């Protein structure tokens, strides 16, 4: 039987410590002791916590570990998460060859060359969002007034989703990504968003545009369900993760004025700085789940078929050997001069984030423009009053009151 030795002492998800910018201390402690730790899921079933950098990479690149949430033993942190992952799953919850077939349908829309061509349009969206925020006056909430509208507008333009519907899909997305969401709430939100996208896809068949959804409905090798599912995945991930990352990255720079000054003095540093911010903040705090399809030996431990594993990107991105060579700052510190290019914030292997070229472009433009146009940007409330979305699949700050 899987995981039959002494009972695990660590229950997932672990509680956060006093620093909201760090992963839960229990995960960091586990990583300091060994790269694999036996843990218990909220439903009482056992699971492996993978915390080491090399081990996380190995699992995410190994086809013996399944990303299909319907596979027996797949680990879930909540009933809502189970519902989101198993009800008509998107391709990120499939294994090859189905995963590869569906991913190929949208890969070229997110190639670096295609995203580079979008940069002037993204810059315009960012500038207009700042204009609106400044016209409204300080203080402003950088999340609702800026960080959320920018990626929402971008992904709406790419997908062909009317931006006037953003309140609907943002509300449903937040429900689906909240780890406290019940099975019933997740079922309702999933049904509402899928129905919305199915109706929109039907309209695109009658009135196609120059957008991803129109191109998908024009194909003869996709079912309506697959089209809606692809749209669902791109819409939810395309705005929520970048919104959270841009807000908390801005907060990190507001907290460390010396680091921000480096970027103001030398804007050419911004692409490398974005990689370090992605590494340091790693907003997928709850990890990436997999299940072993056959017995695997990893770091000297025997993982049985049917064992669930959760790969902790956040602890992997604190690897001392890789990210803190001699003379470099400790990985727990933000250091915009660090070479962070090998971080795992976007995952690894065949399932690594499809939209990472878009996310990088948006973050580079967002942070560079904020630093240039609002050099006096500062927190409008004490830092200890900020509230963080620690129960969400995508970590972030719920509101960020600022002045300038």
Describe the SSE topology.
Elements lengths: L9 E2 L13 H9 L2 E5 L5 E5 L2 H9 L3 E2 L12 H8 L11 H10 L4 H25 L3 E2 H6 L1 H11 L6 H12 L5 H24 L5 H6 L6 H32 L1 H9 L4 H12 L6 E5 L3 E3 L2 E3 L4 E4 L1 H4 L3 H4 L32 H18 L4 E2 L21 E3 L1
Parallel strand pairs: 1-2, 3-9
Antiparallel strand pairs: 2-3, 4-6, 5-11, 6-9, 7-8, 10-11
Helix pairs in contact: 3-9, 5-7, 5-16, 7-11, 8-9, 8-11, 9-11, 11-13, 11-16, 13-16
In a few lines, what is going on in this structure?
This protein is an alpha+beta fold. It has helices spanning 25-33, 53-61, 79-86, 98-107, 112-136, 142-147, 149-159, 166-177, 183-206, 212-217, 224-255, 257-265, 270-281, 313-316, 320-323, 356-373; strands at 10-11, 36-40, 46-50, 65-66, 140-141, 288-292, 296-298, 301-303, 308-311, 378-379, 401-403.
Describe this protein's structure.
It is a single chain. With 404 residues, the protein is an alpha+beta fold. The chain has a single domain (10-403), classed as Cytochrome p450, CATH 1.10.630.10. Helix content is 49%, strand content 9%. The chain contains 16 helices and eleven strands. The strands form three sheets. The chain has a six-stranded mixed sheet with strand order 1-2-3-9-6-4, sandwiched between helices. It has a three-stranded antiparallel sheet with strand order 5-11-10. A two-stranded antiparallel ribbon has the order 7-8. A hairpin with a 5-residue loop joins strand 2 (36-40) and strand 3 (46-50). Helix 9 (183-206) packs across helix 11 (224-255) and helix 11 crosses helix 13 (270-281). The longest helix is centred in the middle third of the chain and has 32 residues, at 224-255. The N and C termini lie far apart (60 Å).
């Amino acid at each position: 039987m899987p995981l039959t030795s002494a009972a695990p002492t660590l229950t997932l998800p672990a509680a956060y410590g006093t620093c909201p910018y760090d992963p839960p201390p229990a995960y960091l402690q586990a990583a300091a002791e060994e790269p694999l730790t036996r843990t218990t899921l909220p439903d009482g079933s056992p699971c492996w916590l993978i915390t080491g950098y090399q081990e996380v990479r190995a699992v995410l690149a190994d086809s013996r570990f399944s990303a299909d949430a319907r596979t027996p033993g797949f680990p879930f942190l909540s009933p809502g998460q189970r519902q989101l992952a198993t009800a008509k799953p998107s391709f990120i919850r499939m294994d090859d060859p189905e995963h590869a077939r569906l991913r190929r349908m949208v890969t070229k829309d997110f190639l670096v060359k295609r995203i580079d061509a979008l940069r002037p349009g993204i810059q315009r969206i960012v500038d207009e969002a700042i204009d609106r925020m400044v016209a409204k006056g300080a203080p402003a909430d950088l999340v609702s007034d800026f960080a959320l509208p920018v990626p929402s507008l971008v992904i709406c333009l790419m997908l062909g989703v009317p931006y006037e519907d953003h309140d609907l899909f943002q509300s449903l997305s937040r429900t689906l990504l909240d780890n406290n969401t019940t099975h019933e709430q997740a079922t309702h939100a999933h049904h509402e968003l899928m129905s919305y996208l199915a109706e929109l896809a039907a309209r695109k068949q009658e009135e196609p545009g120059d957008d991803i959804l129109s191109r998908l409905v024009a194909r003869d090798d996709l079912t309506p369900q697959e089209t809606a599912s692809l749209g669902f995945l791109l819409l939810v991930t395309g705005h929520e993760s970048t919104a959270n990352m841009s807000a908390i990255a801005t907060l990190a720079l507001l907290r460390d004025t010396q680091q921000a000054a480096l970027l103001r003095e030398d804007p050419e540093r911004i692409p490398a700085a974005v990689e370090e911010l992605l590494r340091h903040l790693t907003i997928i705090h709850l990890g990436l789940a997999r299940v072993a399809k056959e017995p695997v030996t990893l770091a000297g431990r025997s993982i049985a078929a049917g064992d669930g594993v959760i790969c902790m990107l956040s602890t992997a991105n604190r690897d001392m050997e890789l990210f803190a060579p001699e003379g470099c700052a400790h990985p727990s510190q933000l250091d915009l001069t660090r070479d962070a290019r090998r971080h795992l914030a976007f995952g690894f292997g065949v399932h690594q984030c499809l939209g990472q070229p878009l996310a990088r472009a948006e973050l580079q433009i967002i942070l560079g423009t904020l630093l240039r146009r609002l050099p006096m940007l500062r927190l409008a409330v004490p830092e200890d009053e900020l509230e963080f979305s620690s129960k969400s699949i995508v970590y972030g700050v719920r509101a960020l009151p600022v002045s300038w």
